[in-house]
User: Which sequence fits this backbone?
């Protein structure tokens, strides 16, 4: 469950630093306030189940804010973040109902320990963290390999796409693990610029090798559009049935059912993580089973649109203990790239101060 | 109802009631909280009769564990999920919209399961959107049959 967190500080630098000190990939939604008055409003709007509060601020300072919270019995847990913590200040904010103190500059480990001590940040929330750490080393290895920035021929920097894809996949992996009650091995998403012909090859392979099934789904929102494809290797269909608790005989109908279900989970979880980071939402089309009612070759040949360059995010999901392997390919149209680039620059700017 | 006057509320409700797609809002116990005109007309169950009952009480033939699993997954993933006519021709046993000239008895349906976030961000309600895709489904199926026939005929012609 997403926890609404409010960071109240008059310095934008301090606000960003505080947000970076929160545990990685913790499922929270962060709001900001520049003074106590804004913070009180935000808490009343349900944006601050947890409040990180500075003491020295204009309009309404930290002490005043605590007084209002106490007097009105507002539903928030307050952690004071201050540069100078004198014993009497400590006593005073404690008596005003603050949970604890963090000394500026905020330390990631300290914040985590404190949050865990108060049971606000728990093991369940750490799950995806753990999964991410599993491949964090792998990731850094890969990063040193591709030391140069990933820049496509037409000059699109793919690095921000890689970052967003990494986070989205981490979240998706965590959600999948919870829904399916399994451990999902998280690979490094492969981000690349793709020419139309290459995409044709991928789709053709699904048609020529009858042992691959594919589902595709369109998504669109805020000027960003594309398609998500799931390629599923049929050799693992029996394992998939086991995973999804189908004990009966596997008919065509059940196979279709499982494919759509798997695509709902994989595409849905990834797109959600992707959209959340960019602060937008997508409309998604109904999933379409490729090759079931339509010949894929026909589908490709009839397509006269010439994609010049699309960005593709490829993820190879492997579910441990089950022999299940499938690829998720998220395609982004060329039209969307300028809009997405702007969003990504903004996002990264926030993170890197 | 701040920010929305009565007039606005009225036309919004009229719109939801007359849109040609089924809209159902369920709470966490699968109890119907909202039921639009499409649902009323096709099931002949009034919104006032439907509200307060679980969806499984209203349609006892729905595969309960199956639908529950889908809805629970939507709550966890917090993103919409889809059921296509290719999986199950229909979930709600509605007759064909064209009862005289239609070629199939039942309405083929695509269903979208939508999580509705509360003001605090928790998923307390689920919305089901039901689309009538009978024409699309029957067209696809007849096209597929025609293609199979052409294949057979070409085989025979080559002999």
Assistant:
């Amino acid at each position: 469950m997403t926890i609404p967190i409010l960071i109240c500080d008059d310095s934008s630098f301090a606000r960003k630093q505080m947000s970076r000190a929160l545990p990685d990939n913790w499922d929270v939604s962060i709001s900001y306030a520049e003074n106590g008055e804004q913070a009180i409003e935000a808490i009343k709007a349900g944006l601050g189940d947890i409040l990180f509060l500075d003491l020295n601020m204009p309009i309404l300072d930290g002490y005043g804010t605590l007084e209002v919270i106490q007097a009105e019995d507002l539903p928030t847990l307050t952690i004071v973040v201050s540069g100078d913590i004198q014993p009497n200040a400590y006593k005073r904010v404690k008596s005003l109902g603050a949970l604890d103190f963090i000394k500026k500059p905020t330390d990631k480990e300290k914040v985590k320990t404190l949050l865990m001590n108060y049971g606000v940040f728990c093991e369940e929330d750490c799950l995806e963290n753990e999964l991410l750490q599993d491949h964090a080393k792998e990731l850094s290895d890969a990063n040193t390999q591709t030391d140069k920035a990933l820049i496509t021929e037409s000059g699109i920097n793919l690095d921000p796409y890689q970052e967003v894809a990494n986070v989205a996949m981490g979240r998706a992996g965590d959600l999948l693990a919870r829904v399916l009650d399994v451990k999902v091995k998280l690979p490094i998403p492969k981000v690349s610029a793709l020419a139309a012909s290459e995409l044709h090859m991928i789709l053709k392979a699904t048609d020529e090798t009858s042992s691959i099934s594919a589902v595709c789904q369109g998504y669109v929102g805020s000027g960003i559009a594309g398609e998500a494809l799931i390629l599923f290797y049929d050799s693992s269909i029996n394992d998939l049935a086991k995973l999804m608790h189908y004990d009966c005989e596997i008919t065509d109908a059940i196979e279709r059912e499982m494919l759509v279900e798997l695509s709902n989970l994989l595409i849905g979880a990834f797109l959600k993580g992707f959209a959340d980071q960019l602060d937008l939402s997508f409309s998604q089309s109904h999933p379409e089973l490729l090759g079931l009612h339509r010949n894929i070759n026909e589908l490709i040949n009839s397509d006269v649109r010439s994609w010049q360059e699309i960005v593709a995010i490829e993820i190879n999901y492997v579910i441990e203990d089950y022999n299940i392997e499938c690829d998720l390919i998220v395609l982004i149209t060329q039209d969307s790239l300028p809009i997405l680039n702007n969003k990504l620059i903004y996002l990264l700017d926030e993170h890197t101060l | 109802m701040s920010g929305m006057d009565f007039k606005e509320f009225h036309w919004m409700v009229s719109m939801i009631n007359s849109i040609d797609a089924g809209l159902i809002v369920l709470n966490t116990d699968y109890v119907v909280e909202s039921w639009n005109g499409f649902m009323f007309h096709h099931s002949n169950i009034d919104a006032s009769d439907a509200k307060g009952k679980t969806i499984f009480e209203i349609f006892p033939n729905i595969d309960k564990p199956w639908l529950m699993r889908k809805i629970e997954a939507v709550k966890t993933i917090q993103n919409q999920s889809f059921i296509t006519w290719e999986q199950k021709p229909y979930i709600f046993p509605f007759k064909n919209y064209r009862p005289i000239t239609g070629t199939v008895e039942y309405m083929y349906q695509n269903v979208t399961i939508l999580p509705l976030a509360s003001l605090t961000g928790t998923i307390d309600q689920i919305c089901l959107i039901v689309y009538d895709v009978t024409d699309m489904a029957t067209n696809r199926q007849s096209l597929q049959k025609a293609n199979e026939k052409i294949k057979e005929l070409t085989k025979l012609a080559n002999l």
The interface with chain A takes residues 70, 73, 76-84, 86-88, 110, 112, 119-122, 131, 140-141, 143-144 of chain B (CB under 8 Å). The radius of gyration of chain B is 20 Å. Chain B has one domain: 6-134. The longest helix of chain B spans residues 134-158.
